[in-house]
Amino acid sequence: MGRGNRPPVILAFGGFDPTGGAGVLMDAKAVHAAGGYAVAVPSCLAIQTTATFDRIVPLPRSALERSLSRVEESFRLRAVKIGMVGTRAAAEGLLRFLNHHRGLPVVLDPVLRSSSGTPLLAGNALPAYRNLLARATVLTPNLPEIEKILARSVGGFQDAVAAVRDLALASGASVVLKGGHFPWPGKRGVDILFEGGTVTLLPPERTFPRRNPHGTGCALAAGIAARLAAGDPLPEAVRTAKSILARHVEKGFPSAEGRWTLYAPDSSFPSAANSRRRAK
Predict the structure, then answer these.
(1) CA–CA separation, 95 and 80 (whole Å)
(2) Closest by alpha carbon to 160, among 206, 204, 198, 193?
(3) Which residues pair with 58 in a beta bridge?
(4) Domain spans, the chain
(5) How far apart are CA 241 and CA 18, in angstroms?
(6) What is the pLDDT confidence band of residue 278, given thresholds at 50, 70 and 90?
(7) Which CATH architecture has domain 3-279?
(8) Hey, which bits of the chain come out as E strands?
(9) CA angle centred on 24, ends 19 and 29, rounded to 5°
């Protein structure tokens, strides 16, 4: 909890997924679950279902920058979480904002492709996006993303540890390599954290069947941002965010397409099932 019993306020910047399973809508849910208050500026509209991706609809840079300035008029921000950036206008607008707020922790989840393989970052956005990577406090790539950023393949778990170290040294940020895509026996879900020259392995709190849930990267990075804003050290922030994510996976449900959707009802509100039982 922030000063005066107020929650820390986290800015979520990313795509608007109309299904609510990823993007800034999922960020807001994860921030709330981690004890923060989310404000959000969408980088673009992501036209999609839980299973398929259609296209990106860009938003004008002037609208993005105006939204960012309006948010900070209402709240003192404590951290920023960046997801899908999408366009050059969004990358440059966000970079300009961050350059005026250099003390803010920035958790960047490098969303470069959809799960179906659609590119989610315009080619002309790369120069500004590289500057965003350099501005990040924490990077949270998955295995395909770190391979893309480093332009090399990762052939085994020890190679993954080396890749995390190399990305941290190249970017100046701490790095959390998410283990959900690891194909190596006994390593799936083991996140690799590199911070201050130290490697920490963070195994999953529990394992689940391969449900291919939607939005886990968004939820984890947003949870980390919320806990950093609350004052947690990074390893503790990651552990707490992983625990919250595990609860969202456990309580989730399938969409109409069969994609597992994250959900964790707030204990302070009655669930629909409990309400029906009481009504009887």
Answers:
(1) 12
(2) 193
(3) 44
(4) 3-279
(5) 24
(6) very low
(7) 3-Layer(aba) Sandwich (3.40)
(8) 9-16, 37-48, 53-58, 77-82, 106-108, 138-139, 174-177, 191-195, 198-202, 253-254, 260-261
(9) 85
H or E stretch at 147? helix 143-150
Percent over 70 (pLDDT), the chain: 92
pLDDT at 3 over 70: no
pLDDT at position 79, please?
98
What is each CA distance from 180 to 65, 103, 189, in whole angstroms? 34, 31, 5
Least confident of 5-19, 35-49, 108-122: 108-122
Two tokens at 200?
A: 């920490």
The interaxial angle of helices 88-99 and 126-135, nearest 10 deg, is 30
CA distance 5 to 40: 22
Q: Quick one: what percent of the chain has pLDDT higher than 90?
A: 85
Query: What mean pLDDT value characterizes the chain?
Result: 91
Other beta carbons within 10 Å of 247: 17
If one counts every other C-beta atom within 10 angstroms of the C-beta of residue 198, the result is 9
With a CB cutoff of 8 Å and minimum separation 6, the contacts of 268 are: none
Q: What is the pLDDT of residues 166-210, one digit of tens each?
A: 999 999 999 999 998 899 999 999 999 999 999 999 998 877 766
Q: Which residues of 95-111 are buried (b: 16+ CB within 10 A; e: fewer)?
A: bebbeeeeebbbbbbbb
Judge contact between 142 and 178, C-beta under 8 A: yes
Residue 268: what residue type? S
**Which residue would you say has higher pLDDT here, 208 or 28?**
28
Q: Taking 50 as the threshold, does the pLDDT of residue 276 lie above it?
A: no
Residues facing 177 on adjacent strands: 192
